[in-house]
Structure formats: structure tokens, C-alpha cells
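Much of the work behind modern protein science is quiet bookkeeping, done one molecule at a time. The protein below has been through that process, and both of its lines are reproduced in full.
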Amino acid sequence: MSTPEPPAPAALLRRALSVLTEMAPAAVELGEVFAAAGHELALVGGPVRDAFLGRASEDLDFATSATPDETQRLLARWGDAHWDIGKEFGTIGARRYGPGGRTGSGAGDVVVEVTTYRSDEYDPESRKPVVAFGDTLDGDLSRRDFTVNAMAVRLPDLTFVDPFGGLSDLADGVLRTPIAPERSFDDDPLRMLRAARFAARLGFAVEPATRAAIEAMAPRLAIVSAERVQAELSKLLCADQPRAGLEVLVESGLADQVLPELPALRLEIDEHHRHKDVYEHSLIVLDQAIAQETGADGAVPAPDLVLRLAALLHDIGKPATRRFEPGGGVSFHHHEVVGAKMVAKRLRALKYEKQVVKDVARLVELHLRFHGYGDGAWTDSAVRRYVTDAGPLLERLHRLTRADCTTRNRRKARRLSEAYDDLERRIAELQEKEELDAIRPDLDGTQIMAILGISPGRDVGAAYQHLLALRMEHGPLGEERARAELEAWWEARQA
């Protein structure tokens, strides 16, 4: 199968013109407002790049020669609402409401951000750029991360500006820095992570000189805050092709700085191939989990960061638990438990939200629970425990477990799929009969205290857990049987 030829720059220009024409009225009008006040205005960055890719951007980014105060005054006149939350960095935002007005759905709204020309100055030891305003569009574009993001369209006359050959790089599918990559990455090391993110989002390759600079300068990421790293990693994982970006991370050495557990999965494979390549397996599981995400109206809307993190990291406990057994076998006993702890530690270090940390770690801990189901029928009690242990993560666990099957043995793969089909069928049947999602003992705490004549305390909790265990084992007992079981348990406890 031959690889399709990338579109020529001329074809990209025609495509961009079509997209820009649709967004032009609002952009051109804004350009006229700034021009009338004696200022330059240009559409820049992502919206320009996406126009060449045939995609319209809902939010429009502009650069201007106007100061932040002047920009704020002009946007207040142009828009229905404006904000200055980024004013210290030279950015002012505004919104013009669509036909529905302030109370409408937001359809037809135009949202813009206008930033004064920049020429950032960086302290080599600081995590944050020192903001310095510039006075030319070319100078502003030179400080952007990659040439494909360093193109602009001057307004209101729609003149295309491309001082660093971004259009050619876009046509070639290449990521290259507008200035020397060593200088660019020294100024802001996070740009190295953006290279991986754009490889994932756009499917572009990192050109050799830029790639070499990343490999040499990866340790510079140490000065970047965990929050900024986490934001880039999350965007990468939620891109259309995260595998491409992850491969850039690992092969360039960036992953050693931000997610060292991932390259650690490249376990040495002995000559007998006694276990699969865990790193490659993890990337395949990620691909297969993404393929099982559903749309916005489904159970696991795409892209789902929790599912993708769990799929990528589900086996990170294997390197620490690998054992070569007598007779030539290899084991990874309890790698799911070890891996859950490792995941929680890494995600906390990356400053992920507590719920994300908790959910990803729980999925990693549970990802092996299904194995063995096909070898012997689970009792209804085991099915109930599977559902209650997964809780609100059940749909994600379904997808992770199915994605974890990467065997090339078609018969084995079919057997595993059929076994999981059967498990999901049994779960559905029990849920219909017993409301598994909200499983509770047959008696609540108030009833327990009344029956036993006791006050709130540890005994009530112990009784509740006893009845919950019976409920899990036998299904609904009914109030009469539950009362008898409770009284028998209490009598034995007092003996």
C-alpha cells in the first residue's frame, strides 16, 4: 500500500482560503477596528495552521502592535464581553455573542484573544518567562514553538505572512523550530514536550536537528513545573494519535524526565522470548482502548484521559516484579498491586487531580481481576464483587480488560472475548434483578441499632459489614431473613 503524497503548498493555500473566508467577516472587522486606531493586527498560531489543514477554529488568536491597555479599550468597543485575566502577559480576551445573545446556546459566538507582540526573555534558571513586549510581527512569530505555528494572516487585508517556511514544513509534515532549536528549547524547555504533543496531534515527524537538540537537552525539563508538564502530557494522551507522541517521548529521552516508568517497560527479551515486549504491548493496549471509547453520548466519551492513562500504565509494575522461574517460565506476581501504587505516586508527582489519581490506580489494580473467569464459572457472589469493586469505573474496566488482550493466537483471543461477553451478560442480568450499582445490606444502620438495642459505634459498623457480606454472597435476603442472620451473628459475637 503506497503512502499518499502530502498536499503541495499551493493546495494548502487554496484549502486555507476556503476556511479563512468563513471566519473572515469577524476577523476582518476586528482588523478594521485596530487599523482605524493605528495598530497592526494579525491572526496567528493554531487557527492559521488549522486553516491550512482544513479545520476551522472556534477560538481565534491574534497578535497586535497595540499595548494591552489599548487592546482592552478596542475589544470593549468591539465585543459584548471582555476579560483581562492574561493582561500581565499582554493578552486580552473578548466574546461577541451569536444570534441567541447572552442567553443563547453559544452557537455563533465569536471568541478572540489578542496578545501584544512579544519577545520573551528567559532566565535560564527560572520556570517562567520574563515578558517583554516587541514591536514587529516577525519578531513575535520568531518566539513561537514551531514553524507550523509561526504563520500569520495580516488583517484586514488577509495578507499571508510566513517568515520561517511554516507552509513548506506543514506540507512536508515536519516539526521544526523557527530559530535554532538549542536556543528555542533553552528559552522554554516545555517546547520539547510540545514537539511530542504535536507529533501526536498532527502525525508530524520531528526534523533531525530539532530531534537531536531534544535528545541533548531533555534534562532541561527539570526546571519546568509539574503542572505545565502534566498539562502537555494530558493533551498528548488526548490527541488523535497519542502513540506517535509517546514514541517521541521515549526515543528522545524526554520520558526519562517526566514519565520514567514508561521507558522502563522496555524489558530485555531473552532469546527464548519467555514474555512479550511489555512496552510495545502497552502501546497496543492504549490503541485498542481508544478504539473502544464511545462518543459524547456513550458510557466512556472520547477522549477519556483516565482510561488512556490506565491503558498506558497498567503494566508498570512488571519490571519490579519480574522473576525467572525454574523450568524457563517468567512471572510477574502481584504486578497489578505494585503497579497501582507506582501509578498513584507518579500521577501525584505530576499534580493530577486526586480523583484522576484514585481512578487510574484503581483500574490498574483491577485490570487482572477478570483473568480466570473463562477457566471456571464465577459464582453470582464473585460477579457482584467485581461490579461493586469497580463501582463507577465499571465501563472503563470493561474496555481496559478487553483492550488488554493482545495475543496473536486467534483462538485464544476469541475465547477471551467470548468469556468477557458472558461476564457482561451476567452483570446485566444481575443488575436488572438486584440493582447492583447501589448494592446495600437488607437492613440499614438505624434498623441494626433498633434490633440489637445498641448505640452508634463500632458494633454497628461490624454488623453492617456482616450483612453486606451476606448480601454479596447470597443476593437479596429479605428483611426477615436478614434480621435472623443479624441476631445469630450478634449472639455468637457475645458468646
Summary: Residues 180-259 form a domain with the Hydrophobic Seed Protein fold (CATH 1.10.110.30).
